[in-house]
Design a protein that fits this description.
Length: 320
Amino acid sequence: MTIRLKTTLAALALAIGAAPLAAQDFPEKPIEMIVPYGAGGLTDAFARAIARAAEEHLPNQQRIVVVNKPGGGATIGLTAAVNADADGHTVVFLTASPLVIQPLYGKTQYATEDFQAISRFYDIPASINVRADSEIADYDQWIEWVKTHPGDFTYGTSGGTGSGGHIATEELADELGIELRHIPFEGSAQLTTSLMGGQIMGTNQLPDVHRGGEIRPIVFVTPTKPADPVYDAIPTTRELGLDAEVIFFSGVVGHKDIPADRVAILDSAFEAAMGSADVQDLFVKYQLTPAYAGPEAFGAIIDNAVARNRKTMKRLGLID
């Protein structure tokens, strides 16, 4: 079963024909947007900005109320969303991992297929990095070094074993036929400190670690990179003709049984909200890559991520 929006031409025509009535009936009350992380971070800030902007485009002048439900690696918030009524009045703003990685372990109270994709907003770039004073100056030198020193290149990720960064790096290593050694860390600060202290040789991290000039990006494992010209010369795996890549998306999903016409109304409001000044300011401030996608395209991205993660996680022995 796929998370994609499943509609026949007849159903789509019915949804379009019913749009005026749906606009009158939905939403009937405020939309609750669950944010499965604590208040004050980037994800929370963006969720609140997109919610405020989307309110202006919802029928019936209804509000979107942001509710933080952190815990369990974001799985608590997703569990609450999947247990809510499938009437479209509850959605969840999330990042990729709790939707396309955590359910594969079989320990969550939901499956990826329990959710309906609504709108994707942005992707978070991530790269493999070394210290600026490393003897490894660029991607070509990195490849040469790791091939002549199999298993000696130690790299860390802030999400630990089985995190998105770990899986993405190992997928790349498998395609290149190289052997790397993963060192898991609890958080980004500890990871950066260990890199700068020489305890590890590299990281898979978000590009904001490069702003101080002490950390050098080698290759982006994401298809996009920040707009800052400092990154122009750093290749993505896609630019190198490699298949290995990961999309660290952020967006909104809801219960899989939300009616298609209501999904369309929500998506329309969120798409319009992307153009608001507050949202655009956040893209610039946090070096985010705008990447809007509607229900069908977003669903395909989610499906692809699950398939790729499952394959790599099985190879690593993380799942059966």
